[in-house]
């Protein structure tokens, strides 16, 4: 299981298109897995939270030869002058079994 949180400074007055950012990230994930011989299907982007912030989320199911091998969730949020992306990925069984821990980690973030 791998979890990553990245933060990027946002220029004053710049409006971040969260859905656009998440769409590009999702496309990149799908392209990278495809090049490795995997297929992926991602959920529709939907509202969620990341710590105290409103956010958008998508989860990708990665398969190989019809077998679910990996899952990856991408969450993007923006604050006044910072943009955050939380990514969580793991083997299918471990990812499913770790949902409570993943949610606890997300909720404990101090953004």
Write a structural description.
The protein has helices at 18-35, 92-97, 99-108; strands spanning 2-9, 39-42, 46-50, 53-64, 67-78, 82-91. It is an alpha+beta fold and 111 residues long. The protein is globular. The chain has a single domain (2-108), classed as Mog1/PsbP, alpha/beta/alpha sandwich (Protein Transport Mog1p, Chain A, 3-Layer(aba) Sandwich), CATH 3.40.1000.10. Strands 1, 2, 3, 4, 5 and 6 form a 6-stranded antiparallel β-sheet that branches. Strand 3 and strand 4 (53-64) form a beta hairpin.
Q: What does the secondary structure layout of this molecule look like, with pairings?
A:
Elements (H helix, E strand, L loop, with lengths): L1 E8 L8 H18 L3 E4 L3 E5 L2 E12 L2 E12 L3 E10 H6 L1 H10 L3
Antiparallel strand pairs: 1-6, 2-4, 3-4, 4-5, 5-6
Brief overview, please?
By secondary structure, this protein is an alpha+beta fold. The chain has one domain: Protein Transport Mog1p, Chain A (3-Layer(aba) Sandwich). It is built from three helices and six strands; from the N terminus they run E-H-E-E-E-E-E-H-H.
Q: What is the average per-residue confidence, as pLDDT, rounded to a whole number?
A: 93
Question: What is the 3D shape?
Answer: globular
**Class based on secondary structure composition and strand pairing:** alpha+beta
Question: Which range best describes the helical content: under 10%, 10-25%, 25-40%, 40-55%, 55-70% or over 70%?
Answer: 25-40%
Whole-number count of domains = 1
Q: How many β-strand stretches?
A: 6
Order of helices and strands: EHEEEEEHH
CATH first level: which class? Alpha Beta
Strand content: over 45%
Largest sheet: 6 strands, antiparallel
Instruction: Name the CATH superfamily classification.
Output: Mog1/PsbP, alpha/beta/alpha sandwich
Query: So, CATH architecture?
Result: 3-Layer(aba) Sandwich
Alpha carbon gyration radius: 14 Å
Q: Looking at CATH, which topology would you report? A: Protein Transport Mog1p, Chain A
Poorly predicted tracts of residues? none
């Amino acid at each position: 299981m791998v979890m990553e949180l990245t933060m990027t400074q946002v220029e004053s007055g710049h409006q971040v298109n969260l859905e656009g950012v998440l769409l590009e990230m999702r496309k990149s994930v799908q392209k990278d897995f495809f090049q490795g011989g995997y297929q992926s299907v991602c959920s529709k982007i939907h509202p969620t939270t990341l710590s105290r912030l409103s956010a958008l989320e998508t989860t990708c199911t990665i398969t190989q030869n019809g077998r679910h091998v990996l899952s990856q969730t991408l969450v993007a949020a923006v604050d006044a002058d910072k943009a955050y992306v939380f990514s969580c990925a793991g083997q299918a069984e471990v990812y499913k079994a770790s949902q409570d821990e993943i949610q606890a980690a997300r909720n404990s973030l101090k953004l």
